[in-house]
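Saturday, quiet lab. Running sequence design on the structure tokens for the scaffold JK sent over.
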């Protein structure tokens, strides 16, 4: 056998992914172009930043979190100036700040270099996330990841924050689970949770489907590996930099209602109870109610739901009840929304709502103190149309997913005798527990 023949199967498998990788690279490039007005100096003028719609956290945090001079978590700064992210992101920031300091002599040039280096990483994560998503979706849905590669909302939000890192890890976790590599799936999930907290919701999805199928060993192996990976990257900082490490958790618990959250609307309008209660408790109760509904749906459905469907519902519930809903959170949901229900009509409607919110938040901030530029910005009522646009369109997609779960014949993914290509051990697994069987 020649070397060319030996390589042929691998090449044949890789070829279908090449166009997706190139289109994802185009999306990553367009996301960089969108922020060029800021990259060339606009960050130093807040009005210019908002009117050009090119805000990012990456550049200002280089200064505001002492990255120009100190190490995250170990920095001798006030508690509210510590890095407010889990440790994987903190260390990504650390590595790139070291490189930026070595390459540039002054702090301003370092911050720009820090942004450029971070963008390269995020662009790679977008391409990797798209390719991993394509592998998860399987050959029958190979082109669905285009929604993640180049959709307008993804291009606009890609470089606001570091969310694409967690996205790539989450897609890697799904692919490892699909291929029944539970240890790898757990390690990637643990790292994803140590990057952004939202992948924790996927453990709930795995647990519910495990309960229905009684495939406990794979779940427990994945859970153990996730806990182990999380501890490995967190414990050193818990021991040697406790104050810096706990900043993320204290910040998450104590922060008030922030932009994008429906609770902000209720507070702004002075609604009784919804606008007056402790939002931390109200949000947790609301999330618990939605998760209970998802659990009932999972265990009562006539056919076991697909893993991506439950992941999407759980993640959407988490976002809709959260105290903050930043523009970049769209990056969390896009791949799972597409894997759950790749129907273009509700996806387009949602994307339009996300684009409108992306425009509205920056125009709204222009009209808020300290800028107070009413001539350039928008008021409360116009802004809240964007907030509710996202909530309603995601609610519509959730309703369609619930319909597909209750009527599996309507699920476009489950055609041609396909069960759950991303389900791993759940694929074609028989039911061992359902609510119907428990009530007999």
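Result came back. Writing it out in full:
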């Amino acid at each position: 056998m020649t070397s060319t023949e030996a390589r042929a199967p691998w090449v044949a498998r890789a070829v279908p992914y090449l166009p997706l990788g190139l289109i994802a690279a185009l999306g990553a490039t367009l996301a960089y172009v969108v922020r060029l007005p800021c990259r060339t100096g606009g960050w130093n003028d807040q009005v210019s930043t908002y009117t050009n719609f090119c805000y990012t956290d990456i550049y200002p945090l280089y200064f505001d979190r002492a990255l120009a001079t100190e190490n995250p978590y170990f920095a001798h700064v006030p508690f509210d100036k510590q890095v407010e992210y889990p440790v994987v992101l903190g260390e990504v920031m650390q590595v790139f700040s070291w490189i930026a300091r070595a390459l540039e002599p002054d702090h301003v040039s370092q911050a720009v270099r820090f942004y450029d280096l971070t963008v390269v990483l995020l662009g790679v994560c977008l391409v990797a996330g798209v390719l991993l998503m394509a592998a998860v979706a399987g050959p029958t849905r190979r082109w669905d990841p285009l929604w993640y590669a180049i959709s307008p909302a993804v291009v606009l939000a890609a470089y606001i924050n570091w969310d694409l890192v967690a996205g790539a890890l989450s897609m890697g976790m799904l692919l490892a689970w699909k291929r029944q590599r539970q240890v790898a799936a757990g390690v990637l999930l643990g790292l994803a949770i140590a990057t952004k907290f939202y992948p924790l919701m996927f453990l709930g999805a795995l647990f519910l489907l495990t309960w229905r199928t009684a495939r406990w060993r794979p779940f427990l192996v994945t859970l153990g590996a996730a806990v182990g990976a999380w501890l490995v990257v967190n414990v050193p900082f818990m021991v040697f930099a406790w104050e810096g490490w706990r900043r993320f958790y204290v910040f998450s618990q104590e922060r008030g209602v922030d932009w994008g959250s429906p609770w902000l609307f209720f507070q702004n309008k002075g609604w009784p109870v919804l606008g007056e209660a402790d939002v931390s408790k109200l949000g947790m109760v609301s999330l618990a109610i939605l998760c209970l509904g998802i659990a009932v749906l999972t265990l009562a459905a006539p056919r076991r739901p697909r893993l991506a469907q439950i992941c999407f519902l759980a993640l959407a519930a988490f976002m809709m009840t959260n105290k903050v809903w930043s523009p970049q959170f769209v990056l969390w949901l896009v791949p799972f929304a597409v894997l759950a229900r790749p129907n273009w009509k509700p996806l387009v409607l949602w994307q339009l709502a996300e684009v409108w919110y992306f425009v509205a938040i920056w125009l709204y901030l222009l009209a808020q103190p300290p800028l107070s530029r009413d001539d350039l910005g928008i008021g409360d009522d116009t802004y809240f149309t964007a907030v509710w646009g996202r909530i309603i369109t995601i609610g519509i997609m959730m309703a369609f997913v619930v319909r597909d779960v209750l009527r599996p014949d309507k699920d476009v993914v489950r055609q041609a005798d396909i069960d759950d290509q991303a389900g791993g051990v759940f694929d074609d697994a028989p039911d061992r527990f359902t609510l119907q069987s428990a009530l007999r």
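Notes for JK: The radius of gyration is 22 Å. The chain has 21 helices and no strands. Ask whether to fix the surface positions before the next round.
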